[in-house]
C-alpha cells in the first residue's frame, strides 16, 4: 500500500494520527499531498496541528497525573528527560513553545513539563499556538517543495528494490549495533 493510497483512503484522519505519533515526516508528506491537490491545504494544516496538539496534551497529562507509572518512570530515566527539565527551568515559556521543533525532545518534553508546576491551562494555550505554528511550517514545507519531493520520489520508485534492500541492510546493521551496545553494557555492569 502506497502513501498516496493511504491518503486517498483515510485522508485527514490519517494525517491527524500520523502527526501525533510520528510528526514531521507525516506533516511534510501531507503538504506534498496538498500540493498534488489530493487534500486541501488548510484542512491538512488543521489535521496535522490537531494531531500534534492532542498527542502532546496526552503526554503532558501522563507527566502530570501518572508520574509513578512505569511508562513515565522509564522515560524520566532517559538523558533527554533531564535535558528537557533543565531547558524548561531556564526558559519555561520558550521551551514549552519550541520543544517540538528540536529533534529528540518531542515525546519527552511534554511529559517532563507535566511533572513541573506549569499550570495546565497555560500549557494548553502555549501547546495550541505551538502546534498550529509547527503544522503550518511543516505542511507548508511539503506544499512549497512538493514538486521537487514528487520528482525525487518518482525517481526513487524506479529503484524500489534496491532501496528496500538498502533500508533492510541499514535496519539490520542498526539492530545489530543496538544489540551489541546493550550486550556490552550488561558485560560492563
UniProtKB/TrEMBL annotation:
Protein name: Membrane protein DedA, SNARE-associated domain
Family matches, as PANTHER family: ALKALINE PHOSPHATASE LIKE PROTEIN, INNER MEMBRANE PROTEIN YOHD
Organism: Aureimonas jatrophae
Keywords, ordered alphabetically: Membrane, Transmembrane, Transmembrane helix
GO cellular component, one term: plasma membrane
InterPro entries: DedA_domain, VTT_dom
Domain VTT per the UniProt entry, residue ranges: 23-143
Transmembrane segments annotated in the record for this chain: 12-34, 40-66, 123-146, 158-179
Pfam families, per the entry: VTT_dom
Amino acid at each position: 500500500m502506497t502513501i498516496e493510497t493511504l491518503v486517498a483512503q483515510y485522508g485527514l484522519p490519517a494525517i491527524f494520527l500520523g502527526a501525533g505519533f510520528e510528526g514531521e515526516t507525516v506533516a511534510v508528506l501531507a503538504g506534498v499531498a496538498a500540493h498534488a491537490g489530493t487534500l486541501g491545504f488548510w484542512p491538512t494544516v488543521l489535521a496535522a496541528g490537531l494531531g500534534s496538539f492532542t498527542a502532546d496534551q496526552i503526554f503532558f497529562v501522563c507527566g502530570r497525573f501518572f508520574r509513578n507509572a512505569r511508562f513515565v518512570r522509564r522515560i524520566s530515566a532517559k538523558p533527554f528527560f533531564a535535558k528537557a527539565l533543565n531547558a524548561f527551568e531556564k526558559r519555561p515559556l520558550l521551551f514549552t513553545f519550541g520543544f517540538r521543533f528540536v529533534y529528540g525532545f518531542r515525546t519527552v518534553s511534554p511529559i517532563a513539563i507535566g511533572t513541573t508546576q506549569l499550570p495546565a491551562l497555560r500549557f494548553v494555550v502555549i501547546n495550541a499556538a505551538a502546534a498550529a505554528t509547527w503544522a503550518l511550517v511543516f505542511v507548508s514545507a511539503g506544499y512549497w517543495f512538493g514538486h521537487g519531493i514528487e520528482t525525487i520520489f518518482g525517481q526513487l520508485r524506479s529503484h524500489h528494490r534496491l532501496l528496500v534492500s538498502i533500508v533492510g541492510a541499514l535496519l539490520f546493521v542498526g539492530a545489530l549495533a543496538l544489540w551489541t551496545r546493550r550486550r556490552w553494557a550488561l558485560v560492563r555492569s
